Amino acid sequence: MSENNDIKTTPNTEEQEIDLIELARKVWAGRKLVLKACGVALLIGLVVALSIPKEYATSVKLAPETTTRSVTGTAGALAAMAGINLGGAGGEDALSPELYPDIINSTPFLTDLFDIKVKDQTGKIDTTLYAYLNDYQKAPWWGVVVSAPFKALGWTISLFKDTPEEQGDAKLNSFRLTQEEADIAAALTSRISVSVDKKTGVTTLAVTMQDPLISASLTDTVMRSLQNYITGYRTNKARYDLSFTEKLYKEAEQKYYDAQQKYARYSDGNKDVVLQSYRIEQERLMNEMNLAYNVYNQLAQQLQMSKAKVQEITPVYTVVQPATVPLKPAKPNKIMILIGFIFLAGVGSVGWILFVKDLLKGWKKQGSAE
To answer: What pTM was computed for the model?
Structure first.
């Protein structure tokens, strides 16, 4: 039985080797087709790579100061080793760094960036971010060709629709955006990215634009806007208390000054009077003045404490990596585009030689035989 098995397996192995050699011979015989296909793919890849507009990316890294209580003990140490941040378990801050991407992608945050002034590296563009994204964006030539029929169709449909009346200089309403404003917000969302390291809490903010100077300046602006948003959120309650305390302080101050003036005028006007009724009225005015002073003094102390509270809970951000103007474009990766085109052309031409070509010949023979 073993001899029979050896006899059966040997021819199969030889046939497989012969088949691989035959496939290699077919490929080698059609090497000119493979070389031509790769050459054409190289030219097409160059056209595509040169047609895609350059994109410049700028990133910053922030290490925000957290106001939460740290988790101590073995559980906290094990969680930190596992990459789990339990620092917010006992804290009062509900705005964790994991929410920063949602904040930046929110409509109010994006629309607040529309009116930011941007200027390109050459100085030819000096406008708002909204106008820059709407009027000064470059696109590859095939994008224009593909979008042209849809634009023509939309223009034709618009002729048969009632156009809404334009409202002069209508203010931006983030609650109700126009289609153009929504498109600009979506484009801005795709160009801003935020990632948070759960172990260290370091936040990385990156902005991609078609101009290096605009990319760097917008990154810095978005970083400061995010800092202001978080600072405003964390200090909102304390600032409200401070404002209310300042109002009470000014009222108490005015009441104290008024009581002081009343007491002084009454004392000066009745300087030589020794009547008991005068003494009673003078004592009453003095008590009112002292009471007003006590309230004024307490509110003055409370006002200082409220100011200190605002300062205490205001987060401090350490800029680990500031924004700098990028020197090289991040996109497109021309080398990868060329490699991709050449690889696809090579695989396609080899597939044609090995499979499709013989399959077509077989179909032609069957058709001629019938």
So the answer is: 0.69
